[in-house]
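Hi Q.,

Before the meeting this afternoon, I wanted you to have the nicotinamide-adenine-dinucleotide prediction in hand. No need to reply - just skim if you have a minute. The sequence and ligand are here:
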Amino acid sequence: MAVLNGKVALVTGGASGLGEAIVRAYAAEGASVVIADIDAAGGQALAAELGGNARFVTLDVTRQESWDAAIATCDRIDVLVNNAGITTLGSIEEITLDQFRHELDIDVLGVFMGMQTALPKMKAHGGSIINMSSLSGVKASSNLVAYNAAKAAVTLMTKSCALHFAEKGYGIRCNSIHPGAIHTPIIDKVLAQSDDPKALYQSFVDVHPVKRLGRPEEIAAMAVFLASDASAFATGAEFRVDGGASV
Ligand SMILES: NC(=O)c1ccc[n+]([C@@H]2O[C@H](COP(=O)([O-])OP(=O)(O)OC[C@H]3O[C@@H](n4cnc5c(N)ncnc54)[C@H](O)[C@@H]3O)[C@@H](O)[C@H]2O)c1
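Predicted structure with the ligand bound:
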């Protein structure tokens, strides 16, 4: 039986990578999916392929007016997946202040605005918020100073909101997913920033005791669980899907 029948889910960054895999899995499980992304071509193509169960809305997660417009198109929202993100490579000695700010704008402020803007609609009936953190939200790397800061912020912001929603009795759960390295376009973009992409790729593999990168579908399966009523007692938790990398 489809486990997301009757639920409306908005997925940011839904046009590519993990977001796309989550959109596909949600549609397959009977949800009505809103693909929210700055990539209009990719998002529209995916919505057209999935047909009646999906539609595209333009969203820049860094702009409040863009959030207001996207949320206004939804009659209801049961599931919000704050997945859009970037990864900026660089140590404290390499990264510029502008790069650091840009990383936080998308990966932290985007998540904050998403939760704050969707909340009034979700409070009407309860639901599930899923924030895409990372292995890098619980484990540091010398060359990921901005990304570590951003994803650690998402990890604790998620818990703060989970506590608040519980205290208020809103019936809204809030959890974070922490993928290890998953082969999506974001990985190719990170490799492109490196002087030695082959060595960097091997270093991603070596981080995982299972000796491989993850697949987008393996993260989507966790996102389905957290969106479904099967996870009704889970809130404020870190769901690590990382081939043992954080152990
Ligand atoms: N791929 C991995 O190994 C990995 C590991 C851990 C965490 N993550 C996290 O998972 C999430 C998705 O990553 P991915 O690998 O699918 O990346 P991706 O680059 O394939 O997809 C990111 C999507 O976000 C969209 N996006 C970027 N900026 C945006 C903005 N300002 N507004 C709206 N949409 C925007 C892009 O258009 C794209 O569709 C990110 O938050 C990332 O940090 C990825």
